[in-house]
Design goal:
48% helix, Rossmann fold, binds iron/sulfur cluster, 3-stranded mixed beta sheet, 357 residues, single chain, alpha/beta, 15 helices
């Protein structure tokens, strides 16, 4: 998309860090008068276009990311934001695929375009947030640091509003939509659910409707209340990482071990679903640790792995089986309580269920 009348346009792929950072990017770029063009939502075509350019073993989220770059190029966008987010806190690193995203794209996408490859590395001097933002807008001729810092405040405002609404239990799409409109509402959903599940995964696995096969909507249709990392504060996540006795190294820990660790101790949570992408090294290690800890907490857990071949029918069957087991376990617990109150012997139903693909 060639900019008309000196219009500044940046393309943002609707993939990977989009699901975490977009509220910030929106507030920031918009405050500087830069128009954002997003790639279209993920489709089967996006996945197969991206998969065709990378080796088979590459994880699904990266294949999807490549597909979104191609989608933006098809739309005619000539400046695309491909950040390299190396380290999000001192000595806390992203996986190598996220860190090397600009190199990966440069090597596999042959159509020429301007890649805006800002680097954020909080483990190195001079590669903090403001430097990252300055690199992001330099191709538009914006170099005034005061303007950049001012625009970052707008970014944080949108980001914080999004998180306030998400923490109140509002759905991802609704919270994002309100945040982008500059609105803040607190969700007041009083509906009662018989079963609560913690869905442990990355935003790009959960909120991409195609990759996740709308897992949250499917669970809600089964009368399940779903909790994710978005309902937790930073402190709760850190406390969750400590619960798993983990020494933090990967940025992934926040959304994986931190979230799992918190919900393992939460009595309102009946079970955990760990959703990871086939080919993800860091997550496969973390899921193993989470499963071991879940046994100690006597919390049922299922691990679902997704790739571009995952069939919806089999996916739903496994979800239904897990939810059904949770219902039966809960019912047995209620019967036990009544029997104990009535001095009857305890009825023990062993329904713990651990499954990995
Ligand atoms: S963390 Fe895992 S799923 Fe995410 S990009 Fe890295 S390898 Fe892929």
């Amino acid at each position: 998309m060639q900019a008309n009348n000196n219009e500044m346009v940046i393309g943002i792929p609707r993939a990977m860090n989009f699901y975490h950072n977009y509220p910030f990017y929106y507030g920031f770029f918009t405050a500087l008068g830069i128009k954002i063009v997003l790639s279209d939502v993920t489709t089967k075509q996006t996945m197969s276009d991206g998969s065709a350019l990378v080796v088979t073993e590459t994880c699904l989220p990266i294949k999807i990311y490549v597909g979104h770059i191609l989608n933006l190029l098809n739309k005619g966008v000539d400046k695309i934001f491909v950040p390299s987010i190396q380290s999000i806190a001192p000595k806390i690193y992203n996986c190598s695929k996220i860190r090397g995203l600009p190199d990966l794209i440069r090597n596999v996408v042959k159509t020429p375009f301007t890649m805006i490859e800002a680097t954020l590395d909080k483990s190195e001097k001079g590669l903090g947030l403001y430097e990252f933002l300055a690199q992001a807008v330099k191709p538009f001729g914006i170099t005034d640091m005061n303007r950049i810092k001012e625009a970052s405040k707008a970014g944080w405002r949108t980001f914080n509003n999004f998180h306030i609404m998400s923490k109140s239990g509002m759905s991802y799409k609704k919270a994002l939509s309100y945040a982008l409109q500059g609105k803040v509402f607190i969700e007041n959903n009083t509906k009662e659910y018989p079963i609560s599940i913690a869905l442990v995964s990355h935003g790009y696995n959960i909120y991409d409707d195609r990759a996740s096969m709308k897992i949250i909507e499917k669970l809600e249709a089964m009368d399940v209340k779903v909790y994710t990392a978005l309902q937790l504060s930073h402190e709760q996540t850190i406390e969750g990482i400590n619960t798993l006795g983990d020494k933090m190294y990967w940025a992934n820990e926040y959304e994986m071990t931190g979230t799992a660790g918190h919900y393992l101790k939460d009595n309102k949570i009946d079970g955990i679903i760990a959703l990871n992408a086939f080919g993800c090294g860091p997550d496969s290690l973390m899921v193993e640790r989470i499963i071991r800890k879940a046994k100690q907490f006597n919390k049922p857990i299922i691990n679902l792995t997704i790739d571009e071949q995952t069939g919806e029918a089999g996916f739903v069957t496994r979800l239904e089986a897990f939810v059904d087991m949770l219902f039966r376990k809960k019912r047995a617990n209620i019967i036990n309580k009544i029997d104990i109150q009535n001095n009857k012997s305890e009825y023990l139903l062993n329904t713990d269920f651990i499954e990995t693909k």
